[in-house]
Amino acid sequence: MTASALVKEQAGLRAAGRGATAPRRRRARLIALLFVFPALLLLGALVVYPVLFSVGRSLFDASGTRFVGGDNYTEMFRDPATLKAVRNTVVWVVVAPALLTGLGLVLAVLVEKIRWATAFKLLLFMPMAVSFLAAGIVFRLAYDEDPDKGVLNAAVVSVHDAFKGTSSYPTARARDGQGLTPGRDGSYATTASVSPGDSVTLPMVGVLPGDLPQGAEPASEAPRETAAGELRGVVYLDFTPGGGGRQGQVDPHESGLPGMKVEAVRGGGTVASTTTAADGSFRLTGLHAGSYTLKLPESNFAPPYQGVSWLGPALVTPAIIGAYLWIWTGFAMVLIGAGLSALPRDALEAARIDGASEWQIFRRITVPLLAPVLTVVFVTLVINVMKVFDLVYIIAPGPVQEDATVLATQMWLVSFGGGNNQGLGSALGVLLLLLVVPAMVFNVRRFRRSQR
Predict the structure, then answer these.
(1) CATH class given for the domain over 71-156+310-451
(2) In angstroms, how far is the first alpha carbon of the chain from the final one?
(3) I need a surface site. Which of 197, 198, 210, 383 has the fewest CB within 10 A?
(4) pLDDT by residue (tens digit) across 122-136?
(5) What are the residue ranges spanned by the domains of the chain?
(6) Residue 199: beta bridge partners?
(7) Distance separating alpha carbons of residues 419 and 408, to the nearest angstrom
(8) Which string of DSSP letters, residue by residue, matches 30-68?
(9) What pTM does this model have?
């Protein structure tokens, strides 16, 4: 066979091979399309169609029958509640991802150096297994202003009372018409002036017998005669258990009020003070001749410290961000820890051999090498906080719901939570989508670059 004939035969075989390969490729593409079709169908039904429908719905009024164009978008930025939602969303985006990334980085570095690292990571990651609904209920109770219910205020009140103490008689008040008049600051003073050598009876009411301090003894009637330069008296609960007794007089079975501060006031200033004994008696000595006013200062009746209003208008957003940190810190730590385990150990060991401190290694080697991972974690959290809804809706009480609202909750409130304006709600949804898309695009591009 000649060379030209051989070349023609090989060319014919290649052409036949190409002719046979083309149907196979078309068949493979068709099979691939059939496998992908269910996913594309779900994607279109659950993502693409709702997005397109929301964009279209945002161009109509609340009833959905009249085309209003961009009026909903204009109204959105005139509504004070929406502007507050935008402001709160900005606070979330700036604060929460930065704190979570920083906490995750610090914990990942520290956990790497302890023996029970796996158990510690498990404990920190466990909140991720709790639904946002359950977490919101837990933190709503934890932030309760009543120290008997809210664990945070219980701790705050305990610390406060340990340093400043608390009043023993927050509900006490003077018996009407028995010589004591209330002051503007909550104190009580004797109506008539007293002098050294006098004996004074100060009856009080409003204290339940079960709320009396431990060690309280039956009241002793004030002595009729006292030493020169001395004022004596008794502060007591003018109430006889079971009824009976005489108002303004010490009767049997009536209790003294121990620990009550009593002051002698003259010329607008306190010249002497003392504290009542277990039976309510007191004695002021070293007084000069003249007229005085006996005063029970307001500190005796100060209401107990109730802690911090965590869910008040000023602190509700930081409080909810705190709950969010509790849930997502483990997520950030695990992702950053995975990146930390992939770092080249020879660079770290070389730095230690050269005498670098752990802080220098962390700042100049660990953080720069982890920069891609930190960026992915940060951007992922930014996307997540823009869509936060559950925690805000559950934790924030009704009166401060507007102070805590973010774009996601405002969208729901406008559309279904009483506003019944789905045109404006759809416009808010489109705004939220436009804010999330750049972060998503950035994350996808970065992921593709890392794969290359």
Answers:
(1) mainly alpha
(2) 50
(3) 210
(4) 888 888 888 888 999
(5) 1-57, 71-156+310-451, 173-300
(6) 232
(7) 14
(8) HHHHHHHHHHHHHHIIIIIHHHHHHHHHTTB-TTSSSB-
(9) 0.74
